[in-house]
Amino acid sequence: MSVLRPLDKLPGLNMATILLVGVEDALLQQLADSMLKEDCASEMRVHLAKSLPLPSNVNRPRIDLVVFVINLHSKYSLQNVEKSLCHLDAGFFLGKVCFLATGAGQDSHCSIHRNTVRKLAHTYRSPLLFCDLEVDGFRASMAQRLVRMLQICAGHVPGVSALNLLSLLRSPESPPLEEL
Amino acid sequence: MNQQGLDPGSTTDMEVVTDIEEELIKACEEMWKDMEECQNKLSLIGAETLSNSNAQLSLLIMQVKCLTAELSQWHKETPEITPLTEDVLITLGKEEFQKLSHDLEMVLSTIQSKNENLKEELEREQQWLDEQQEIMKSLNVIYSELKKQVVTFSESRIFNELKTKILYIKEFKEKLLITLGEFLEDHFPLPNGTLKKKKKNIQEATKQLITLHEVLEILINRLFDVPHDPYVKISDSFWPPYIELLLRNGIALRHPEDPTRIRLEAFHQ
């Protein structure tokens, strides 16, 4: 059982790599396309995976940011993410992981409560973003946001580390989370 | 003086630049070596996965450690600034000026094109204005001519015209009246001598008869003088056949209650 670790390889020149994990291939592909359309000073790579662990026999660049995409309409997608989390090194949770919940817009279709996802993100001390990836405009802005995060996580923004960003992202959410 | 000072300097400039480049490359290589060392150290550390139960606490501890480490790193580090030597300043200034001049050139070209557009527009407007002024002039000429004509019209000509028209109409009316009178005399004469001879006694006993012309005149005058009561009493001087003629042809009407009175049909209404 291979565990994905941060900083396991030397970085490529000006290269930033993001890994999107989720069961819905089509949504991940659309999100990846939107991200690649964004303006980015770094050379960006987007990798898609259904679940972790990743096959160990492939030569892949250093992963700078892992995004777990959870579809609130399917319990399976949550279970898949929970299983995948066991194959990630603890070092990733220092700002290089984020959860992305999609489908919250259609409340009647949701089979997972939003608080369940909130608890999960809180347990792993990682930011949780909500976005309906099926809406083009929302997806584009989320892609932009992820690109910015990726640049920071890859260390391409001077003076800001992934951990810095994590502490900035989480602070306003803290009070309600304690109440859960 | 400055020129002489700069010329010998330019040869040393090149040396300085290459020196700086070499220094930078050296620094980069050292950094890369450091990174490789760190990477080796990192790879020695075993992976650690989290379970749901222990995740929060261990992550918080890790975060504290890392944040403290980052903090102390920031404290230790003194920000390096590029040495403000003359060469660096000159290069930076050159870049800045080139950017500025490029921007200014863009501004200049846009303003020039705008200027040209405005000039063309001005010409067009000027031409239009000239045309309008020409039109104004000719209109003014026409206006003053018309004004003169209007004065003569109003004072003499129209007056004369109206006068002649009135005269003409008056004449026409006279003619019409005379013609109508003649027509009546010709076609509707009073009963002549033959009748007189046969009924001499009756005629002499009755009043002198009046012509149809006169009857009509009486009826017309009554209609216009007393419009609210246009009826005329049938007197003996009206010849009964003519009255019958007028009534039958709808020229005169009998009073609905008094058969001895008649009026002229109101043709004018």
From TrEMBL, chain A:
Gene3D superfamilies per the UniProt record, alphabetical: P-loop containing nucleotide triphosphate hydrolases
Record-linked PANTHER family: CENTROMERE PROTEIN M
GO CC annotations, alphabetized: cytoplasm; kinetochore; nucleus
Primary location recorded for the protein, binned into one broad class: nucleus
Biological role stated in the UniProt entry: Component of the CENPA-NAC (nucleosome-associated) complex, a complex that plays a central role in assembly of kinetochore proteins, mitotic progression and chromosome segregation. The CENPA-NAC complex recruits the CENPA-CAD (nucleosome distal) complex and may be involved in incorporation of newly synthesized CENPA into centromeres.
InterPro entries in alphabetical order: Centromere_Cenp-M (IPR020987), P-loop_NTPase (IPR027417)
Subunit description: Component of the CENPA-NAC complex, at least composed of CENPA, CENPC, CENPH, CENPM, CENPN, CENPT and CENPU. The CENPA-NAC complex interacts with the CENPA-CAD complex, composed of CENPI, CENPK, CENPL, CENPO, CENPP, CENPQ, CENPR and CENPS.
Protein name as catalogued: Centromere protein M
Signal sequence bounds: none
Source organism superkingdom: Eukaryota
The species this protein was found in: Heterocephalus glaber (Naked mole rat)
Keywords: Centromere, Chromosome, Cytoplasm, Kinetochore, Nucleus
Localization of this protein: Chromosome, Centromere, Kinetochore; Cytoplasm; Nucleus
Automatic annotation (TrEMBL), chain B:
InterPro entries xrefs: Centromere_CenpK (IPR020993)
Domain of life according to the entry: Eukaryota
Keywords: Centromere, Chromosome, Coiled coil, Nucleus
Record-level GO cellular component terms: inner kinetochore; nucleus
Protein localization: Chromosome, Centromere; Nucleus
GO BP, sorted A to Z: kinetochore assembly; mitotic sister chromatid segregation
Main subcellular location: nucleus
Pfam families: CENP-K
Family of the protein in this entry: Belongs to the CENP-K/MCM22 family.
Name this protein carries in UniProt: Centromere protein K
Organism of provenance: Heterocephalus glaber
Gene designation per UniProt: CENPK
